[in-house]
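User: Could you write out the 3D structure of this protein bound to zinc ion? I've included everything you need below.
Assistant: Certainly. Input first, then the structure.
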Amino acid sequence: MKYYFQIVLLFAIFLSINACETTKLATSNEELATSNQKPATSIADIKFQNINVIDAKNGLQKGMIVLVKDNRIIKVAKAADMAPTGAKRTVIGTGKYLIPGLWDAHVHLVFTEGLESSMFRLFLAHGITSIRDTGGQLPLVLPEREKARNNPKNAPRVMVAGPLLDGKPTVYDGSTPYNPHLGLGAGTVTEAEKNADEMIAAEVDLLKAYEMLTPEAFKAIVAKGKTAGLPITGHVPLSMDVIEASDAGMSSMEHMRNLEFACSSDWEDLLKTRQKMLFDGKEEVGSTLRRNIHKAQRAHAVANQDAARRTEVLKHLADNGTWQIPTFSIMTAFSERFITRTDWQRSFTFLPAKIRDAWTKNSIAFARDTPIDKGSKDYAKWMFEMVGHMQKAGVEIMAGTDCPIFYLTPGYSLHEELALLVKAGMTPLEAIGAATVKPAEYFKIDNELGLIEEGMLADLVLLEANPLEDIRNTQKINAVIRDGKFHDRAALDILLTPTE
Ligand SMILES: [Zn+2]
């Protein structure tokens, strides 16, 4: 997608005056009190008194008591049903809302030079307590995961895919700054298997298959992933149809990539044409070849969607349990232009000074010089509608952004993703589910993460206002609890302050 944004031609002055979302980062009234009770072995570390609890399974539960001890939720009960109990820290929850810690299910921890060391603090400060890294070289992302694991109270939970397992030519081959060396290209099935084996040996948490794979190499990677018990995500290879990729066992598809082709009335012709373009373009640069294929088919496919075919495709996705991660944040940044909004520009102040200055200058210049074209608008409209169709069909959806690509401020952008999911037709509760219990289900850790129930891990976000009334209230963060550690507003503000 990046190239899409980089094809910058000049025109129209676009000044940034979209709505001013007030991000309530100001310090909230301190309502924390320390109990006088003597600590006993059974005493809780944190007690939320009279709190409104929200999770995707139980909905809104008012007037609750939630107890946290060490890194677990040990009690969730109606205040009236519980004998008085003390805790080391009592939080008066009146008027406040407690939701499970959020996930950003599509990030690149190591992508923007100079931002790597700020990623964890930015996620945590915005209530993102878990992330899924969907592409990075092993020597770079494994140490990040290790750092997070060694310091779980001050970093998000990190799941990594390692590099993109691609074919040849390879899209992310390091040939341009926009195509850094994130891909491992395999020209044969044997090479593809070797690449997958290397990932599995490195104990990645999932595999990511990419667009230039042959169907045979793709299926070999999926088989390796299945045997190792890992989810296989990725972009549907251009050489394949979505149904074929889903039936082969692909666990999830990022950006709804190439789904428009599969739902076009002439999908078979489009597939044959793509296969021929791939064959003829063997010697081309991977990113160029991919761009040309998208260019040749995307607008046409979006204009020729076939309802019956779409129903068939979505049925396969639902039946096979193939998830979708729309990543509206990156996919509609071009058409929605939220990057120029006052609040968005303000979020750049959380970044190291050098990056803040570059992003401010470049994002404004981009918006000024690049008109919103019809193709991007049509494509965004298609995406928003498709998510509605996917929900009706029972296709599982997760929230992810693709930050920090294209001026997507880490952490901040996940809240935009939630708003965009609601814009696409999800209820606020469903959007919260897509960023909490759904990713936990995806990784099969929903027995201990993603809901506010007894026995669950204590990754929580305390909000000043009801996110079910307005999803943007997920931004009104009073505190973040990560692995049982309470980060109050003052601590979060420190996390938002760059030191470089
Ligand atoms: Zn990505």
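Confidence is low (pLDDT under 50) at residues 1-41.
User: Perfect, thank you.
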